[in-house]
Amino acid sequence: MATPKPQRSPEEVEDIILRKIFLVSLTETAAESDSRVVYLELTAAEILSEGKELRLSRDLMERVLIDRLSGNFASAEPPFQYLIGCYRRACDEGKKIASIKDNNLRSEMESAARQAKKLSVSYCRIHLANPELFSAANSSPNRPNGSPLLPLIFSKVGSSLDGFGGVVGGSGGVESPPGFLEEFFRDSDFDSLDPILRGLYEDLRLGVLKVSALGNFQQHLRALHFLVSLPVGAKSLVNHPWWIPKGVYLTGRAIEVTSVLGPFFHVSALPDHTIYKSQPDVGQQCFSDASTRRPADLLSSFTTIKTVMNNLYDGLSEVLLLLLKNQDTRQGVLEFFAEVINKNSSRAHIQVDPMSCASSGMFVNLSAVMLRLCEPFLDANLTKRDKIDPKYVFYGDRLDLGGLTALHASSEEVAEWTNKRQSDGENRLLQSQEATSSGINTFGPPITKSSSSGEKTKYTFICECFFMTARVLNLGLLKAFSDFKHLVQDISRREDALTTLKDMQGQTPSPQLQLEITRLEKEIELFSQEKLCYEAQILRDGTIIQCALSFYRLMVVWLVGMVGGFKMPLPSTCPTEFACMPEHFVEDAMELLIFASRIPKALDGVLLDDFMNFIIMFMASPNYIRNPYLRAKMVEVLNCWMPRRSGSSATASLFEGHQLSLEYLVRNLLKLYVDIEFTGSHTQFYDKFNIRHNIAELLEYLWQVPSHRNAWRRIAKEEEKGVYLNFLNFLINDSIYLLDESLNKILELKELEAEMANTAEWERRPAQERQERTRLFHSQENIIRIDMKLANEDVSMLAFTSEQITAPFLLPEMVERVASMLNYFLLQLVGPQSKSLSLKDPEKYEFRPKQLLKQIVCIYVHLARGDSENIFPSAISKDGRSYNEQLFTDAADVLRRIGENGKVIQEFDELSAKAKVAASEARDAEATLGEIPDEFLDPIQYTLMRDPVILPSSRITIDRAVIQRHLLSDSTDPFNRSHLTADMLIPDTELKERIEEFIRSQEMKRREGLSTQSIKATIQTTDGQMLID
């Protein structure tokens, strides 16, 4: 029978377990059996001297551990790895202990294992916080690879995928023992963990510095999320010295590079300055030689970048949400946002200094993250918009909003209102305190003191998040849209230049030209890569655009709430809060709508009615939105929404079934057409043509909608001498200028063509001169194309509106101007100069002379039909510069040749005959009047005044029709430039009576003369002899 195994005592079991956990021995024999085991000779001697057994116990555990860490043992593990091993072995021993059947022994041993784990964790903290403490034990206090804790965190948060879906390791094969990290960060005070966490955050920051969207950032982002999910980690982060870097010369770029979160926000697919360029290079790796790549490859790259960037947005949003939900860290997050925004305010400039401003990538990422933070208050009904306080613009102390251009108020007015409100608030607070101390509360609830009186005004998170998001989008997403647009324009310009250079190289090759061609090709390739990077991260990400549209819907609804809601007409006085709102709030909304409208399906599912209401309400309201260019941008939005352009039937309802649209759209478009004449800009003369082009296209579409056409006719009747007359005047002005400019440029272009066609003479010219003349030729082509397109639009509008609206054209102050314009156009198209306007390819320049002639003749005919008082033929014949009866005959002949409607030609011939009669009558009348006294002549036109009026400022007398025609374009006295309006004119009744008497007397003399001649003719015989001798 076998001898039973002797039972070990609890002390012996504990000794065995602790020796296995800590890999130490108090006897040399035990150490020899395992090379990992360290013999603690000095410790053993001390224990023996104390009269104790050489056996490990819980009482000796910490002493043994300190001696092991402090000693310099050959081939021993570094302290951190050793302590992690202790924790892992304690876990393993714990599993074995669970199988001990003796409950008391099992409980004792479990306690020992727990204490061992706790001790291991505690000394890990001590070592990481004070690495020099155990530096003698085969370790260096300087750790070039960062905190040894980081690989454990990486292993806990899982492996990462790079931009192409490959697994990226980062923990170096090191795995965190179960429960170690939780215990490490749980049972300790903030002061002992803070230095460790600071080092970890610095390591994470460095780990993603200069990492692009295709690099390994996700592992570091998950590690950041893990740390922030710990209360101590969140507190340590916002108290980190690099949470918001400090310094007199701190810039936006410095925050991006040196702050803890900055490098995470820098991860992007967008291009950046060479110094800060991230790797791998997204443009080079995904989009080089894009024109030769398969569409499937490009689509794969687009999908990869979109997916990776959304992972980044989600990860950063989760990190920030954890910090914002924590009351102790929320203010720190808002201060970080504010500092980033304020230090990068110059990103709003057209030219951005990349050395002082953060990258576009950072701000686009920040835009996406801020929009995610706004989602809770972007519900369909916008139920939380009341929590957004407009007074934040006056009293909010985080954001620098004071220097921003306001919707209507000047900077001086904003400052004055701010100071007045603060003063009123302090006075009310003082009175409230006095009333409260006397037992009377006159003013209701206590008033929060403003920041000027020493206390910060508190605003809800929704309010602060709203204003910060608006600023971030302005500096980020909307700025990126602008950069993308300019990039596309740069590519287009370079491609045009490249085409020109290649043509020149084909004619006269030269090495210098070839160098220039090569340089342009490289630039186009680089810019094309950058363009595709923008497309991948922004244009193809429908989520970010949809979220931005939801945010700006809240913006416009909130703004309209300040003026009483969606109703017209607007209050006569603009509310102070609305007037002081930053102009870019509205401008960004319009830019986003324009940009989104040009991306297929970007507007699908978006509620556009609120935007439509806002545009109709404010586009013709300079008392609310001062900037005419901003109001013109609203028309550009509507232009994008026209059904034929948007490609969506959904937008048709915005025009054809929308109450405010049906009632006010045409009226406000006509008003804006007039207002845009004077923008105050030094480029206003040229700007107005582009703006009116958009208005004209929209008006042409609305004319085809019966309900809008009826509204148009009603406005023309109601505003016959108001806004409609002004609109007509500027339409005529533009038509004359644009057609005249186009036709003159055609003559210049033909001269250049003749020069270049003379090959022998052309080749003798210097190469530089040929290049300059070639560039001028292409420039002239573009100018003609643009001007002629605009002229066609204007003439077309005159044609289709005059068919049903003729009265304003035939007003005394307008009829002669209209007639002169039509005569001038007729002269250009069928007069002696017309043959010199022939072009090889007129359609290329939008020059359609046959169509133009048809439209001009139709305008003649339309006005003749509406001319019940027969004043139009007289106005035609009075035009001494262009009228010629032969022109009407020639025009009719051309119309017959090109197949115009016979009825139109017949009516045109009849009008021509009437004009001929009117011309004859005018000559007779001129002969009758004879020499007219100077005092009866208009000082500008030198024609006989019919209704003289006195100008109140200069006291000069002028004909009413002449001055009213002048006032349509310029509301000043033409003789001294003082302000003048039609209602200020003073009728000169005495002079009018004298003129009328003069006319009567001259006509009487003429009749008397005719009567005498008639008598003489009657009494004269046929043979010439007098009947009376």
Automatic annotation (TrEMBL):
Catalytic activity: S-ubiquitinyl-[E2 ubiquitin-conjugating enzyme]-L-cysteine + [acceptor protein]-L-lysine = [E2 ubiquitin-conjugating enzyme]-L-cysteine + N(6)-ubiquitinyl-[acceptor protein]-L-lysine
Keyword Ribosomal protein annotated: no
Pathway the protein takes part in: Protein modification; protein ubiquitination
Family annotation (InterPro entries): Ub_conjug_fac_E4_core (IPR019474), UBE4 (IPR045132), Ubox_domain (IPR003613), Znf_RING/FYVE/PHD (IPR013083)
Transmembrane regions listed in the UniProt entry: none
Compartment annotation: Cytoplasm; Nucleus
Pfam families xrefs: U-box (PF04564), Ufd2P_core (PF10408)
Keyword Transferase listed: yes
Enzyme class: transferase
GO BP of this protein: ERAD pathway; protein polyubiquitination; ubiquitin-dependent protein catabolic process
Coiled-coil spans in chain: 510-537
PANTHER family per the UniProt record, alphabetical: UBIQUITIN CONJUGATION FACTOR E4 B, UBIQUITINATION FACTOR E4
Family: Belongs to the ubiquitin conjugation factor E4 family.
Name of this chain's protein: RING-type E3 ubiquitin transferase
Organism of origin: Parasponia andersonii (Sponia andersonii)
